[in-house]
Specification:
Chains A, B, C, D: Pfam families: GFO_IDH_MocA (PF01408), GFO_IDH_MocA_C3 (PF22725). Chains A, B, C, D: This is Myo-inositol 2-dehydrogenase. The structure is a homotetramer. By secondary structure, chain A is α/β, with parallel strands linked by helices. In chain A, 33% of the residues lie in helices and 25% in strands. A nine-stranded mixed sheet of chain A has the order 16-15-14-13-7-12-11-8-17. In chain A, strand 13 and strand 14 form a beta hairpin. The radius of gyration of chain A is 21 Å and the shape is globular. The model of chain A has no long low-confidence stretch (mean pLDDT 97). Chains in contact: A-B, A-C, A-D, B-C, B-D, C-D. The interface between C and D is large, with 41 and 42 residues.
Chain lengths: 377, 377, 377, 377
Amino acid sequence: MARQLNFGVIGSGYMGKAYAIALRALPTVFRLPAEPICDMLATTSAGRAAEQARELGFRRSTGNWRELVEDPAIDVVAICSPTYMHREMALAAIAAGKHVICEKPLALSSAECAEMADAADRAGVCTLVGYNYIKNPATALARQLIEAGEIGEIVHFRGTHNEDFLMDPGLPMSWRLRKAFASEAGALGDLASHIINAAHFLCGPVAEVIGESQIIHAQRPNTAGVLEAVENDDQTQFLLRFESGVMGSIEASRIAAGRKMGLTYEIVGTRGTLLFDQERLAELKYYRADDPPHLQGFRTILIGPEHPDYGHFCIGTGHGFGYNDMIMVEMRDLVEGICGERPLWPRFRDAVHTAEVVDAVGRSQRERRWVKVGESE
Amino acid sequence: MARQLNFGVIGSGYMGKAYAIALRALPTVFRLPAEPICDMLATTSAGRAAEQARELGFRRSTGNWRELVEDPAIDVVAICSPTYMHREMALAAIAAGKHVICEKPLALSSAECAEMADAADRAGVCTLVGYNYIKNPATALARQLIEAGEIGEIVHFRGTHNEDFLMDPGLPMSWRLRKAFASEAGALGDLASHIINAAHFLCGPVAEVIGESQIIHAQRPNTAGVLEAVENDDQTQFLLRFESGVMGSIEASRIAAGRKMGLTYEIVGTRGTLLFDQERLAELKYYRADDPPHLQGFRTILIGPEHPDYGHFCIGTGHGFGYNDMIMVEMRDLVEGICGERPLWPRFRDAVHTAEVVDAVGRSQRERRWVKVGESE
Amino acid sequence: MARQLNFGVIGSGYMGKAYAIALRALPTVFRLPAEPICDMLATTSAGRAAEQARELGFRRSTGNWRELVEDPAIDVVAICSPTYMHREMALAAIAAGKHVICEKPLALSSAECAEMADAADRAGVCTLVGYNYIKNPATALARQLIEAGEIGEIVHFRGTHNEDFLMDPGLPMSWRLRKAFASEAGALGDLASHIINAAHFLCGPVAEVIGESQIIHAQRPNTAGVLEAVENDDQTQFLLRFESGVMGSIEASRIAAGRKMGLTYEIVGTRGTLLFDQERLAELKYYRADDPPHLQGFRTILIGPEHPDYGHFCIGTGHGFGYNDMIMVEMRDLVEGICGERPLWPRFRDAVHTAEVVDAVGRSQRERRWVKVGESE
Amino acid sequence: MARQLNFGVIGSGYMGKAYAIALRALPTVFRLPAEPICDMLATTSAGRAAEQARELGFRRSTGNWRELVEDPAIDVVAICSPTYMHREMALAAIAAGKHVICEKPLALSSAECAEMADAADRAGVCTLVGYNYIKNPATALARQLIEAGEIGEIVHFRGTHNEDFLMDPGLPMSWRLRKAFASEAGALGDLASHIINAAHFLCGPVAEVIGESQIIHAQRPNTAGVLEAVENDDQTQFLLRFESGVMGSIEASRIAAGRKMGLTYEIVGTRGTLLFDQERLAELKYYRADDPPHLQGFRTILIGPEHPDYGHFCIGTGHGFGYNDMIMVEMRDLVEGICGERPLWPRFRDAVHTAEVVDAVGRSQRERRWVKVGESE
């Protein structure tokens, strides 16, 4: 493993730390074609960056993300900043010839996403978007079973991404609730995008949607205690048709009492059904119509070394798989993708589709009709 | 209990037998204002009717339903025949001054339902429609908790009624699959109507819908083995707005592999959430945001004597509640309703709303837009 | 169904009502060789008996159980009185040539049980003991699967019967807590006996045990509010060896917080495992080692018409099965058993074994060693 | 974090890799008083050690564990070798003044364990034994709730550690199945020891036991295909009394079909109950008797930042927690313990108790009676 990949991470919050954990442990978990190095960390101030770099194990730090992006030693730029900054950062990184992994949602609109994907294509750099939940072995297994025909032809998809982190109306305003910083798609952009991406991964692209969104807590206090208007949705729901003709529906909420990580899907086929719930992330439920009638029932498959990726973490089935393990699979994909050993997915180009679905849902609500994904305005 | 109510049941299939079981056991389970009597059974032939009457415990039988409807000794007519016969039978029973309980869906269209409801109103007879699942104590508890404000203001409703009894494409054609006998609403009319009714019961009437339906197995063999076209949907899904403004969605399928009695709902409120699954019919899951943060989680409430109706069947919590027990609650409601001791719900009038929602979903698909429930053509 | 069987029921409490419900509905559910009639009810006063008879649907009543037992019209005596009265009532009924169904536990000791079984054998009457939980279709399926070899050779049995109806230390003294009325086996006699019987049904007779019991709430208030000593155990646990050599364990409690009907068992075999929990009485969980490795997992089988008995109640799988349905299966067994169409189980003779296990657990605690079931004192 | 702790790990199998992953990621997850360094790896051959050291990220390697143990730069020795080697390695490490973490079971008998604990005490080095499952935040929460009185006084404990990795009788002989290498306690020593340790952690030390064990697959093929005798148990079960007087039971199996990581416990108290299952390691079920009667039920608490340790890994409740995360908590405990910032548990001294329980179960089977833990021979 002579080759090294120097990572520069922008942002030291939740995802920045998760990336650092994953990058540190990665070479011990997997045999990799290159060793990822936590090289530089950028946050909004030099002092804070230096302190965080020490804590998270980066060699260098900066209070200016442009410095990181332009540093010749950096091979890969990881963007973990608020959504509205993604475009500028990613374009700068691409311009500097860096490979880029960017947190989701990729940008404020599908147009921005497309601009970023175009730039990456022209520059010939590798990209990946942080739709990390599809990196779960249980979801990889779901895809394997679908491809192997174990549920027959897909008939219906229902997906959710429900959480309740904003259910308390007393929680303060934040950038996530503002149009300029997080787009007018709230739960739709932040959460539904995960399950849209999973639907894409499992059932192919989406052709058409109709939906609606709503704001339940219309105002929240700012830091001065003054109420300000929330500018994007707390909750969304939409019907969809995949390009394959399969029917489906998706819902997402950030105020769904009791749901902590409620990314779920149910995929019904002509010969079986798959059920998944990210709150029990190391299980896949499977009903098989070919079992003898008196022995039929949903079985709970505990993920183990007989399924994708898990065996690198632990040799015992059902011993547990965690959030950061999922991020490690994502980083493994990235490293191997950059080294040409694996196709990358979802790239910026693939995330354009997710963003187009989000945009189409918004338009379908404004125009009260079914909207084709990618339909011109 | 000097008063008696003579029941005449039309149809000796699945529901006819369930009614007979319930009527027989009813006076032992509940203290009733009147004793229901299994008086007469009507099926399509006199011989078959006589045999079935003996087996199910009816005093008399007939091969001609009009004879039953017009018999002066009959107080209540129970209609358990295929959908297309409901209207004629119900109108005849009402004309003869009988109280009527009719299986669901009430009729082939909302117009037919309204005609029947109007006739009943004019005649001043009592009516009930066999949306039996809302008679479950768990669902009665859900309504109690909602009314007591235990989940705060309702924010979202998601309901399903998924089964798989028609998932095998080799199963033969039947009246349920034909427009003339079961309407052009297949799973939509037969199954979604149950969960639409439950939504009505729990969250109030529906104002607007948009949806679509599909036929997956387009042809099925008739008794001669010749393939014939299936004329109504295997599966449906739609978005809805309640009159209260609450957002929701409903789906139903008769080909949902693995689902045997998949009537489920999730009702999210501002302070809690309720989950129900008819496959575990004696449980209600409840999340309460007011629990201390480190002790929060969905709790599984096992239904017992501290909840509605259950104590009449058994004094031990969690000892079990069955399908026929639910029918007994329904019959108890009917008997008490006829005796003026309890408001009846859902009456024919209430089922008009369910039928209007079904009709509106159909129209929303044809016109590819949101349709108001009850919107004039 | 010309033949009739006149039932005389002693006791109008919980079980008396359950019997009445079952007997009333039985002929509508099953095709029976004889019609059971709710003929006479006996309770402790003539007035109360008359009132209850009216409510529960008996033709006649008495305040003197001997009158019932000796009435020539009575064919079957059902004993639903407190345990300490079982022996005298059953012996009188047997002496009068009646068939007898008796609630569990059958008597205060295995010696009493054996005396009752001997009397029944000499008189040639049919007997049945009210271990109703084994009448559940899910448990009948478990036995079918074991007999069909679907889990290979049995390796281990673990059973529980945990409830919490006495967890509140403020609940008053009752006959169940007194040695003279309910034996010195409290939870052991009242609850563990159910799961011992189920173990016997599923895995054969028990050869040896060692266990211990404890009283947690040593005193309870009598009706005058004065604290009195509780005389039998709140909780028990024991290890056992079946005659087959299989190892197992059983526990029971009447103070197990949260358990409402916690009769559960896990039966591990060399090729699979079965799990059952009476709180979800219409499900059986099954793990099959012969499934392909990546598709293995416990499956949840929902009970339906493809399993024993259920189809008589409902034609839809997973539509629900209740406590009183289970009692109906028990009564069906009794009626068919009396008519010679089915072997009865568990008879008085079979309940002797259960009582011997209970006695042996008591002795094993006193002598602090393994005790053979039936070992002479 | 100027201070560094050089780790020398003996063994590069399953646990060796898990330790390496944990040590690498640890400083990024937690703020530590010292930085753990993967310094040296020892396996049975120099070549293999060098290769594995490269893969797992160790600086140095050796084919001779004594070299590692005696290396002056090593601060902590981690022993991940088969059980029979623990004693010799640990004593050598202690003699060299190293801190030691040793995999479980600590040694072949309680006498060996005591010898090792004595040596550590005399040398004044820190020790920890790899009973990693108690490091799970869910179990830490269980202990918190018990200590806070949330379930009242403990009444009963039931624990299991069931897996099925040896259920296939065709699997070959291994050191785990031989008396000389793994003791005569098979599942009892390897698996039950985990749940004994957890019982100790949650309910205090055990005073008395009675149990039995069995070998189901008596012979297994060696590498030449010749059948050899299995020398220790496939399965064990025992009753126990804690020193507190609380009653309990434990079972363990390595052939329990369907169980992959079946470490479970149920702790019943006078005011509530806790349920845990390691197959759903980020959940704790809790029943609270103080809830209003109609709202009582087991709640499923998803572990989050409001519970112990989890927040260092992820800020979102219910986002997942994995096997290697648990090992990181263990290593954090070790590093902080060595730095004097936290009491270490379970130390070698604490594992003596576990071993004494195991020994007592063995003796109770030989002598067919209750045996006091630590009872002299």
